[in-house]
Amino acid sequence: MALTQAGSTGDHWSSRSAFILAAVGAAVGLGNIWRFPTLAGENGGGAFVLVYIGFVILLGLPLVLSEILLGRAGGEDAIGSVRNVAVHSKRSELWKGVGALQILAGFLILSFYSVVAGWVINYVFVAGEDWFGALFSGAPFSVAFAGETQEQITGRMGDLFASPGKLILLHAIFMGATIWIVASGVSDGIEKAAKWLMPTFFVLLVIVTTYGAFTGEFAQAVKFLFTPDFSKLNPIALNEALGQALFSLSLAAGGLLTYGAYITRDVNLAPTAAMIAVADTLVAILAGLMIFPIVFAVGLDPAAGPALIFQTLPIAFSSMPAGSLIGLVFFVLIFFAALTSSISLLEGPTAWVIDRFRIRRPIAAIMVGLVAFGIGVICALGYNILSDVRPLAFWDVFAENDILDALDGVTGKIMLPLGAFLVAIFTGWMADRRLIEQQTGLDGGMFMLWRFLVAWLCPIAVGLVLLLGLVPGLLGD
Ligand code: PFF
Asked: For ligand 1, is residue 29 a contact (CB within 6 Å)?
């Protein structure tokens, strides 16, 4: 039994495939193409990838199902849905705090996500300029960044960071696009955007991966990504892998709870959740197989950190055949992925504002988007005017982080694991078992297995990793 038929914002996906595209769009984003290869590179490759996949299967997938089913059963924004299910299950209304934590996490992620997406837009322009320049000079398959030294190419990132105006403008362009899509509505905005952007994204991804496979060091990349070296794993890497699994699947940030409320009753949730998790993980691995052959082809460092796609790859493109064209395609595909994710981040808090204050969608989207934009501006200033600021200097784990990294750290390492932990406890122990069973569509043994993972494994594993990550000395290392 669903408690209500529709989200109180009155919206619905027009079909199951529309929901899947939108949810895969939410999941596939900067997390897959920027963060996953970066973390895999920094943590030695194979072992990290293996742990990551383990987390996705054992923790991520059961939680994706939990969140979309809570959303559909509750039928409102993230806070309202959890409250509805809690009340129906004769539990305290205070459980709605789980929804509130998620909405806050999603809102904070949106604010810095848009800044990073702004960097991507910058590189779309840079690569685009190169390509069109080459096209008009009669040599379309020229290299990117022609005539520039490695230092000059790397320096572009520094130049961008030194310019608050440029960072803020690019951030504004991205946030503006996000607001516009969310303001247009669930089926006219979010669904339409996903329908166009996601298939295009997949085609572009396959093009660049195939290019890397033929022109780069594919075998070396495969070895790097799939040969585990467990000596590289430590509690911090485990915490990073879990945070990344949650972030990449869009868990605990209000997006899935909110999208879940727009799913119609006839959709079978379990296979749908599996499709989202599989598609997201495949894209992350494909992104690794797209990036590392190119990085290895020119003998660059896979552990370059966040600069991997903004500095290392442009250097690689500059010495590869058709590098300017591939560079352009690469940054456009990241931009598409980022946009379909940011709309889900904005939709969570927007749906809540619509429900809570009974205001129209466009106004709500603009209001929420503007506040997130403001926080993003502070993050952008953290690279120049406020570059000395270390907001969490008092906290060992985050002491060195600049403003954007601090926000990324607190959301990824604390709020997402905590939100996931609470969803697991709520779904596994608090929510009415009959309601849950009906919503999953799982029967017998599969339901027992899912419930075991959600009620036992998720809280224990997520709780432990959360603790280990925050108190690195706990294992005596
Ligand atoms: N899953 C997105 C990514 O991998 O880039 C980020 C994200 C989107 C996180 C939506 C949370 C969310 F609700």
From this structure: yes
- Whether 106 is in the pocket of ligand 1, judged by its Cβ within 6 Å, is yes
Domains of the chain: total: 1
Q: Is the CB of 420 under 6 A from ligand 1?
A: no
Could you give phi then psi for residue 364, rounded to 5 degrees? -60, -45
Q: Which has more confidence, 133 or 59?
A: 59
- Is the CB of 75 within 6 Å of ligand 1? no
403 belongs to a structural domain: yes
The span from the first CA to the last CA of the chain, in angstroms, equals 50
CA–centroid distance, 248 to ligand 1, in Å, is 5
Is 2 within a domain?
A: no
Token code pair at residue 142: 């020229």
| Residue 9 within a domain | no
Give the number of C-alpha atoms closer than 13 A to the C-alpha of residue 321, restricted to the C-beta side: 5
10, part of any domain: no
Domain of residue 108, CATH code? 1.20.1740
Q: Which residue has the tokens 């089913």?
A: 69
Q: What is the distance in A from the centroid of ligand 1 to the CA of 246?
A: 8
- Mean pLDDT value across residues 251-279: 96
**Average pLDDT over the chain, rounded to an integer:** 91
Q: Is the CB of 30 under 6 A from ligand 1?
A: yes
Q: What is the spatial distance between Cα 17 and Cα 33, in angstroms, rounded to a whole number?
A: 23
pLDDT digits (tens, 9 = 90+) for 327-367: 999 999 999 999 999 999 999 999 999 999 999 999 999 99
What is the extent of the structural domain holding 354?
16-475
Q: Alpha-carbon distance 75 to 452, whole Å?
A: 25
Residue 89 CA to residue 429 CA, distance in Å, equals: 10
Percent of the chain at pLDDT above 70? 94
Atom of ligand 1 nearest to the CA of 247: 9
Closest residue to atom 9 of ligand 1, CA basis: 250
> Which residue lies with its CA nearest to atom 12 of ligand 1?
250
Give the pLDDT mean for 370-377. Answer: 98
- C-alpha 249 to ligand 1 mean position (Å): 6
Dihedrals phi, psi of 162, to nearest 5 degrees: -80, -10
Measured from the Cα of 253, ligand 1's closest atom is 13
Q: Read out DSSP for 250-292?
A: TTTSSHHHHHHTTS-TTS-HHHHHHHHHHHHHHHHHHHHHHHH
pLDDT score for 5: 46
Q: Would you state the pLDDT for residue 471? A: 75
